[in-house]
Specification:
heterodimer, A: 5-stranded mixed beta sheet, 3 helices, B: alpha/beta, Elongation Factor Tu (Ef-tu), domain 3, 5-stranded parallel beta sheet
Amino acid sequence: MPVTRGFFGKRRPERPDRLPPGQYDTGSSWPTLTAEATPQLDVETWTMTVDGLVGRPSSWSWREMHALPESTYFGDIHCVTTWSKFDMTFRGVSVDTLLEIAMPLPEARFVMAHSTTGYTTNLPLEDVTGGRAWVVWEVDGRPLPRGHGGPVRLLVPHLYFWKSAKWVTRLELMERDRPGFWEQNGYHDRGDPWLEQRYQGDP
Amino acid sequence: MTDAPAGGWTTGTIIGLDHPTDRLVRLRLHVEDRVDHLPGQHYVVRLRAPDDYTAQRSYSVASDPDDPLLELMVECLPGGEVSGHLHDVAEVGDVLELRGPIGGWFVWKGDVPSVAIGGGSGVVPLVAMARLAHRLGLRDRLRIVALARTWDELPYAAELQRYGAFIALTRENLGGRVAAPPYHDELAPYVDGAERAYVCGSVGFASYATRLLEETGMRTDAIRVEQFGETG
């Protein structure tokens, strides 16, 4: 591809090793991006469900979720719109904990995350296991703000952030992959920022 | 899968470039092997330095799919690496890396009766929709509402007015309308009968406009939102 005449780049990263290709460090700001109207989610009626190909379909209320062993993620997040944000702390429950209770069947290979809004996103099961995915309600020591998916969202920080479904309410385990909301609308099925899997057709 | 068109990486040559205001730059590009877009879709523009450092950002398309050139209207953001280059450095004849069209959600194909509300440079994808509607004689099917502080801060203001858009300026009077955010009774005729709503603007604008639409009777699940943040 051609060099752009007159372009030399003025926002070069201080920590290029932490920045996936095509991303920039957004610093202290945290942009909010949503495709739908932001819902007002009531924690008294909200539940988290794991079902589909599992031995024991399970649901937890807000209180029951908080009674599960807590887990923390500290690290970076990457949005497909090209910003990355370093050193975030999220607190919630590891998806491993939920799956230990729900017991995935051997044929389960993919997960569809569902939000209260109807938003969906698909993930390989192996991307939400092994300490790589959480259901979180706290960021940097404070309740997760509504615009960022509060009171509760999925967190899969090693993939582009549209996979971290806001207002998550259900994980559906599936044998075959099927595209979620953005995946039906041109975005990649896996979304690994280090491989720059932004859109359908990327490697 | 939706049937929205999608294009891979290609290049575009700047055929036309002008600055409608000191914060806006309009680019008219000839795109190699162009895949025609749907109104509402966007392109990625990628700039490449001599050492292969790159910076890329997404911009909504303003042109009618029928236009032989691709039109982008880019707002210059403070410190914006890509918008700053397009605004201050780019010239006619420059070749840019482009990828698009992209997106299958915030698109209007001319079928569903809709209301579209944009704030400031958030009107850009709505202009593509309005141009399509105008060309196909579908103006009844698309009502446009445009908000800005002043006339000069609203891209395509005169064109949108010609298409019958409701323009609400919040900091200066327009014709007989006193400066103010849109009132519910001003908005109602535009929302009435719409089966879908499109909202485009900054994050703050999007949440404001979404609430306004809900209060005016729009169903929450019929609202499609396109926001832009501090993405330079």
